[in-house]
Structure formats: C-alpha cells, structure tokens
Amino acid sequence: MKLSKRMQFLVKNGLKGMAWLLLILAAYFLFKEVVLSRTPDAWVDQIYARPLLVYLVYCFSEFFFGIFPPELFMIWAINKDTIPHYFMNLTFFAVVSYTMGYLTFLIGRYFNTHASLKYFKKNMLKEVWPQLKKYGLFLIIVAALTPVPWSAVCLLVGSAGYPSKRFLKYALFRLLRFAIYGYIIYQTHVF
C-alpha cells in the first residue's frame, strides 16, 4: 500500500522521535545505574530540597526549545511524594507545556509579520517554507507526541502563519503525550 507524502512524513519523523525517546530512556537508566545507585542520597537531597527551582527550570526548558525532556521532571515527580501529588505535577507539566507551546507559537506569529523575517524567509528559506505550510499539521502532531523540540516547532509553525485555532486543536496531542508517558513512568516506578 502506497502512503501519501504527508503520511510518509508523519511516519518517518514519528520513528525518529521514538528513536530519540529510546536514546533518552537508555541514558536515564544508565545514569540511574552508574551514578544514582552509588550516591543516591546526595543527588536526591539536592534536587528534592528545592521544588520551586525544579518548576522554574521546567518552565524555562519548555519555553526555550525543550532543553530538558519533560520525562525527567515526571520521574522527579513520581519519586517526590504521593501518587496524587504525582498526578497533580503531571497535570501541571502538561498545562505548562501546552501553554508555553502556544506562547512560542504567538511569538512566531509576531515574527511572521516582522519585516526582517519576511526578508529572511524570502531569501534563505524559500524552499523550506512551502513544505512547512504543507506539513504543519503533521509537524505539530509529531512534535507533540515525540521528543522533537516542542517549542521550536511551535515557533516555526507560528512563523509560517499557521492558523491559531487549528494549532490549538492539534496541539492537544501534547496533553495525550503527557498522559501516555506519565502512565508509563507510573507503571515503571510504582511497586
């Protein structure tokens, strides 16, 4: 069966995102076995003593191209306190991620109307921009569900002039990602 170009794009980039997820998980488990198993108290006490700092780092990371994967914060939350507290943190992380994605989308929309970006698009990205407009929906879904940098994709899609209502609708896949990944982390860390 021949897949359309859009579906090929979605599958290809979805597989790349899953490969990155596996790499992140492998790095986490390696870190857990090599570093945390030898001196767990030193690491845990440093991080858990400052939850406000963790929340600020998360917000910063979600705004600036996902420097740290949200799964690290989910793991922090599952180890921090009770199960209801974990789900409250998971909800907080999902809402912040969705909101920061929309904020960077709006920044991209602002740059779309800015004269210097119009010049940049016309001269430097003339081949990429039509593809971005054509595959914007799939790019949003792939970035929402995989470790592809969420806010960077939101910025690009916004700067391509993608409609706000459609972005907000398809960005809801980001909440699905948090539900799925949160459940997986819950299942792997609760005994």
Automatic annotation (TrEMBL):
The protein's UniProt keywords, in alphabetical order, are:
Membrane, Transmembrane, Transmembrane helix
Q: Which domain of life is it from?
A: Bacteria
User: Per the UniProt record, which residue ranges are transmembrane?
Assistant: 53-78, 90-111, 135-158, 170-186
Checking PANTHER family in the record gives: ALKALINE PHOSPHATASE LIKE PROTEIN
For this entry, the protein name equals: Short-chain dehydrogenase
Q: Which organism is it from?
A: Draconibacterium aestuarii
